[in-house]
């Protein structure tokens, strides 16, 4: 049963990976609700199931059992193409390894999701330029990803994730490849987007330096939620 | 499209390989078509100019005639019928009959073709083939024989030979005639057996002053066997005007061996096309598959961001289509350009006299030409593009089936 007030609700979510005869449980019954405009971190040690949870919430993978509701819609009933459409319109992704498309410029990478959505060229370029300016990387608009630093690439990934105004941005270890200063800058940037644009963020991290910047911290260990703290900051 | 071009530029080596996989089959196919067109055209022109015409009107064959063609005595009415229809380029009356040519103690079975020299001059190349003496003139009593027959009978220009005509309708007839010219035959069998005389001489041999065996006709604007429709249009009109005892035979019936050779060329070309296209398709499939493998992470990302399966397929097919169109166009252009260069230098001479003589037996010239046909160029290029796109389908399909999480974990 879904809670209409929740942006995302999971009910007894389980995921087990099977390779040959070996079964590896990653999530062991996760039930959680995420609300609009939250800035939430999922923390836990490596292998605790953080990334798996984000993948399932983003419709990139399917759970072994349990259900996910996105704005009240159960994801289990959606076909592959419907899931793809849902990702395109409702979810922004930021990955650990930046994952920009190497043959597209920063501007084209930022506008890529808008292109998938069928937004006309002039409008998508305009919107992409605007978000790049907001994130302070407009000067790299015509550069290819391999010509800019890791921190700048991750900012472009954030720009791409928010440009289409998705319901939620899922960021999987977004600071893992960045130095401390750049990590703080990136988290501050996402926080600003959360406060100024009302964008909802959920990011997975095991970087304890960043956890005091979130307003909700969900802790996960061995595929189970062991803590859910709300901060005021 | 922009991304496709950049992907192609990113791995130039592979792009060039794929391009060549498309370009080379198109180049070879267009070139082979051009050579084959020229060969077919040579055979057709040789057969129809020197011997059969595009069609002949003959008396309906009767039993017991052997190799002799039945005589007709109403060729004027046939000529009158031809005057009533459109599309006739040329026609003449001919009397062909089997005979024995003898000189001293040597003899050879031959075919005498009684012709009207002024009438065949505009279209027949045989006068140009005379290498010794002269060609026939009207009213002249004499024969023009092939080099091969001259060797067999051991005669030269000015020598006399005896013709012993044997037509079932008129019986035996003998004439002593001088050799006025010796020709170099385009087909060696023709040089041994075909002897030209005037129609008057042939009629004397047949003891019949108005006899003929055929009215030989050429149709306007026929460039090769591919224009058979134009010939059929004329013969269809003519059949309605002729009496029942006359029949119309087109060049395919008159020279079945020539149309047989041409018939062999078509399946050979199809086999070559299948081989070329098959090899090209394998290379395209292989290189695109490698490209998809190398870009697994990137494709996984694109799917993760929300691209539909069809969108991914379209991306890969756009790249394949781009390479295929460029490769096919360049392949066709190079083939056409080389054909023009070959023609500018007068064609490709066949190496060695033996090969030239062998080709001659099929009515072909000793110089190969390249005759470009634009529809064939277009079809070859378009077919290769389709084949390349079909070959690209499998890698494109595989790309569309990638699971985004697994694909983004992929390490090359």
Write out key terms for the chains shown:
heterodimer; A: 233 residues; alpha/beta; six-stranded mixed sheet; four-stranded antiparallel sheet; 6 helices; 10 strands; 28% strand; B: 412 residues; alpha+beta; six-stranded mixed β-barrel; 54% helix
Describe the structure.
- The complex is a heterodimer of chains A (233) and B (412).
- Chain A contains six helices and ten strands; from the N terminus they run E-E-E-H-E-E-H-E-H-H-H-E-H-E-E-E.
- Chain A is α/β, with parallel strands linked by helices and 233 residues long.
- Chain A has a six-stranded mixed sheet. Chain A has a four-stranded antiparallel sheet with strand order 2-1-4-5, with helices on one face.
- The longest helix of chain A has 18 residues, at 180-197.
- Chain A is globular.
- The two termini of chain A are 32 Å apart.
- The model of chain A has no long low-confidence stretch (mean pLDDT 88).
- With 412 residues, chain B is α+β, with helices and mostly antiparallel strands.
- Helix content of chain B is 54%, strand content 19%.
- Chain B has 15 helices and twelve strands.
- In chain B, the strands form two sheets. In chain B, strands 2-3-8-5-7-6 form a six-stranded mixed beta barrel. A two-stranded antiparallel ribbon of chain B has the order 11-12.
- In chain B, strand 2 and strand 3 form a beta hairpin.
- In chain B, helix 1 (2-10) crosses helix 12 (309-344), helix 2 (12-52) crosses helix 12 (309-344) and helix 12 packs antiparallel against helix 14 (374-400).
- Chain B is elongated.
- The two termini of chain B are 26 Å apart.
- The model of chain B has no long low-confidence stretch (mean pLDDT 86).
- The chains are: A alpha/beta (233), B alpha+beta (412).
- The interface between A and B is medium-sized, with 27 and 21 residues.
């Amino acid at each position: 049963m879904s809670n209409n007030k929740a942006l995302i609700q999971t009910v007894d979510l389980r995921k087990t990976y099977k390779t040959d005869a070996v079964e590896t449980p990653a999530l062991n019954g996760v039930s959680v609700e995420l609300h609009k405009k939250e800035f939430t971190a999922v923390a836990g040690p490596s292998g605790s199931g953080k990334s798996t949870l984000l993948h399932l919430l983003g419709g990139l993978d399917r759970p072994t059992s349990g259900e996910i509701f996105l704005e009240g819609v159960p994801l289990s009933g959606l076909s592959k193409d419907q899931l793809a459409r849902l990702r395109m319109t409702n979810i922004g992704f930021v990955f650990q390894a930046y994952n920009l498309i190497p043959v597209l410029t920063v501007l084209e990478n930022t506008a890529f999701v808008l292109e998938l959505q069928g937004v006309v060229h002039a409008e998508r370029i305009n919107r992409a330029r605007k978000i790049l300016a907001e994130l302070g990387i407009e000067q790299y608009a015509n550069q290819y990803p391999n010509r800019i630093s890791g921190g700048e690439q991750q900012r472009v990934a954030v720009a791409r994730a928010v440009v289409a105004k998705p319901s939620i941005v899922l960021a999987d270890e977004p600071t893992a490849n960045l130095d401390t200063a750049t990590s703080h800058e990136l988290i501050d940037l996402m926080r600003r987007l959360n406060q100024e644009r009302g964008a909802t963020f959920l990011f997975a991290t095991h970087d304890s330096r960043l956890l005091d910047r979130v307003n909700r911290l969900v802790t996960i260990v061995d595929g189970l939620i062991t803590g859910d703290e709300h901060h005021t900051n | 499209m922009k991304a496709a071009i950049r992907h192609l530029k990113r791995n130039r080596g592979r792009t060039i390989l794929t391009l060549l996989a498309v370009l080379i089959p198109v180049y070879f196919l267009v070139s082979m078509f051009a050579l084959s067109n020229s060969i077919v055209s040579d055979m057709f022109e040789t057969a129809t100019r020197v011997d059969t015409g595009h069609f002949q009107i003959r008396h309906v064959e009767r039993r017991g005639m052997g190799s002799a063609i039945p005589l007709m005595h109403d060729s004027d009415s046939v000529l009158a019928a031809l005057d009533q229809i459109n599309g006739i380029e040329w026609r003449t009356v001919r009397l062909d009959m089997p005979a024995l040519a003898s000189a001293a103690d040597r003899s050879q079975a031959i075919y005498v073709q009684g012709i009207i020299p002024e009438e065949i001059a505009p279209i027949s190349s045989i006068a140009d083939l005379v290498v010794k003496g002269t060609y026939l003139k009207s009213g002249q009593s004499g024969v023009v024989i092939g080099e091969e027959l001259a060797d067999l009978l051991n005669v030269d220009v000015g020598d006399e030979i005896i013709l012993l005509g044997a037509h079932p309708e008129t019986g035996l007839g003998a004439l002593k005639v001088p050799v006025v010219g010796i020709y170099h035959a385009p087909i060696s069998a023709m040089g041994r057996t075909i002897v030209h005389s005037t129609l008057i001489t042939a009629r004397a041999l047949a003891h019949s002053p108005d006899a003929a065996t055929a009215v030989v006709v050429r149709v306007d604007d026929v460039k090769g066997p591919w224009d058979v429709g134009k010939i059929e249009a004329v013969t269809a009109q003519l059949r309605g005007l002729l009496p029942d005892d006359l029949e119309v035979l087109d060049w395919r019936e008159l020279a079945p061996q020539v149309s047989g050779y041409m018939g062999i060329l078509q399946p050979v070309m199809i086999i070559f096309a299948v081989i070329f296209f098959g090899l090209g398709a394998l290379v395209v499939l292989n290189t695109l598959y490698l490209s998809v493998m190398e870009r697994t992470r990137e494709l996984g990302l694109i799917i993760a961001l929300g691209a539909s399966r069809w969108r991914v397929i379209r991306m890969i097919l756009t790249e394949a289509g781009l390479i295929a169109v460029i490769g096919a166009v360049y392949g066709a252009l190079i083939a056409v350009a080389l054909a023009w260069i070959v023609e500018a230098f007068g064609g490709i001479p066949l190496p060695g006299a033996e090969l030239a003589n062998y080709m001659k037996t099929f009515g072909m010239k000793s110089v190969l030409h390249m005759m470009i046909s634009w529809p064939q160029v277009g079809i070859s290029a378009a077919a290769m593009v389709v084949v390349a796109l079909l070959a690209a389908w499998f890698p494109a399909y595989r790309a569309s089936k990638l699971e985004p999480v697994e694909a983004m974990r992929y390490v090359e």
